[in-house]
Specification:
By secondary structure, this protein is mainly alpha-helical. 75% of the residues lie in helices and 4% in strands.
Length: 106
């Protein structure tokens, strides 16, 4: 056993570099959080188009000669996508930064 390899003195960086069980756990947790964030974004981006497909009455209602379904897709979605995209990027960056901080700890 090398000096400094005593119980409790190993850093997350050591665990990752040596591909130990704990290092794998750190990576697995990061991947799970990233997957959860991605699934949340997927649901958020897919809810309105899916609702329009599921509720065909929205295609039969016209506003100014254009189906309501088109209005719902064209008008509110771009700003919503921009906001969700910014929130997604911010959260993904925070996850990455927290992982980097974990690895930097000594």
């Amino acid at each position: 056993m090398a000096p400094g390899d005593q119980l409790g003195s190993r850093t997350p960086r050591d665990e990752l570099a040596e591909a130990t069980e704990h290092g794998a756990l750190y990576l697995r947790r990061l991947r799970q959080r990233q997957l959860a964030l991605s699934l949340l974004a997927l649901v958020a981006f897919g809810v309105l188009p899916l609702a329009i497909d599921i509720v065909p009455q929205l295609r039969r209602v016209y506003v100014l000669g254009i189906p309501l379904a088109i209005w719902l897709l064209v008008v509110p979605l771009p700003p919503i996508f921009l906001i969700l995209g910014a929130l997604y990027a911010r959260r993904a960056d925070a996850l990455d930064e927290s992982f980097r901080e974990l690895v930097r700890r000594r």
